[in-house]
Amino acid sequence: MSSSLPAGVPSTHEAIAYITPRQPLQSITRPTVPPKPDEILIHVTWTASTPLDLHRADGGLGFKPGQPPHIMGTCYAGTVVGLPLSPSPPSHVQLADKVFGFVQDGEPREAGVQEYITVPSNKVSKLPSNISLQQAVTVPTNLITTFHSVTKDLELELPWPIPQGWTPKEVNSPILIWGAASSVGLYTVQVLRHWGYKNLLAVASGKHHESLKKLGASECFDYNKTKVTEEILEYVERTRKEVGADGPKVPFILDCIGSTEGTLRPLTKIAENGSKVAVMLPVINVHATDDHAPELAMNVTEVKLDWEEGAVLRGVRTFFYAENPFFRDYFHRDIMPTLLEQGVVQPNPQRLVEGATLLERAQNALDLLRSRAPSGEKLVWRVAEE
Ligand SMILES: NC(=O)c1ccc[n+]([C@@H]2O[C@H](COP(=O)([O-])OP(=O)(O)OC[C@H]3O[C@@H](n4cnc5c(N)ncnc54)[C@H](OP(=O)(O)O)[C@@H]3O)[C@@H](O)[C@H]2O)c1
């Protein structure tokens, strides 16, 4: 085990933390941690925002004032600068490799918005040669969300590797992806298409329909239309005879947004007895604005809505993905880099967040999330220069 830091790595570094809800973020100094035998030390150069950042910063989700600072960042991309002397098992990355991954924000050693992180090796993916770090950092948080929600909450199979000749049992079942232009939605469409699911109904603004069809959506619907739920049900009724499905009209629903009025209420008109509805948590009862804090709920069944008896509601919690030992061990090492290298999954389009300092970029990214600026794109920003 290496107990000291490699030459050239500073003993302390900058990190960005939430201190008090609805108050500015703070730049803090953290010790740089030498890697234990199963860990890798990484110089972080890029991160990407997730709406969770806003749920934490404005909603105080998951931290309380007076607790140790909660460091931002569920993803990182950067360069390996330290390996333990005797990695166990042997490391799948080498010094100077470009890497990226999904991490737990608030976890001081690994949270993504700090210049150096020390992460378990099973949270490190090697960058494929066909994409940049800036592109790669859009992927981990929501690609793992796709795998976790589809397999755990919708109970659909995504075997890895895909056995030769394998076809999903639900090949023709309608799978409704509401919020398909969100980062989660874009990855879900691509993953389900690749695994052979052929009846993917995507709900997004009309401007995204063409690109969603290219990614694999079978049919697209615009949630800005007042009759969107009627249109979806009419389409499913019409095509049901062709695909020969029985049971609920839409058996699988992934709500990639989790908004009480924006997504859940319309979905109550679609979900029936036996439909599985997986909802991204937290449920947003009221979105944050400059003038008021958000109202968030972590239990989807407690949100008062009139669901049909027998509809199965599940709240998605991706931070528990490692309860599946296969994803814990192979998502970063194998699944994510392979899907990117083979071009099965395209990284999200990016919007670069500028700012003179790390703190300024972090704060500017939060402001963009608060004003709901991202549309079919991921906010990415520099943590440090190469
Ligand atoms: N609990 C978990 O495990 C977990 C994991 C990942 C994400 N999440 C949560 O899931 C949510 C989405 O995350 P994200 O990173 O994918 O967000 P995002 O990419 O920032 O979402 C922005 C997109 O949301 C779409 N949208 C907004 N309101 C909509 C509505 N009523 N119907 C359909 N689409 C709508 C917009 O679509 P248009 O451009 O088409 O207008 C926009 O493209 C966030 O609240 C996040 O915290 C939870």
UniProtKB/TrEMBL annotation:
Claim: Transmembrane helix is one of the keywords in the record: no
GO molecular function: oxidoreductase activity, acting on NAD(P)H
Keyword field contains Oxidoreductase: yes
Xref: SUPFAM superfamilies: GroES-like, NAD(P)-binding Rossmann-fold domains
Domain Enoyl reductase (ER): 23-380
Pfam family, one: ADH_N
Alphabetically ordered keywords of this record: Oxidoreductase
Family: Belongs to the zinc-containing alcohol dehydrogenase family.
PANTHER family to which the protein is assigned, alphabetical: ENOYL REDUCTASE (ER) DOMAIN-CONTAINING PROTEIN (PTHR45348:SF3), HYPOTHETICAL OXIDOREDUCTASE (EUROFUNG) (PTHR45348)
Protein name according to UniProt: Chaperonin 10-like protein
Taxonomic source organism: Podospora fimiseda
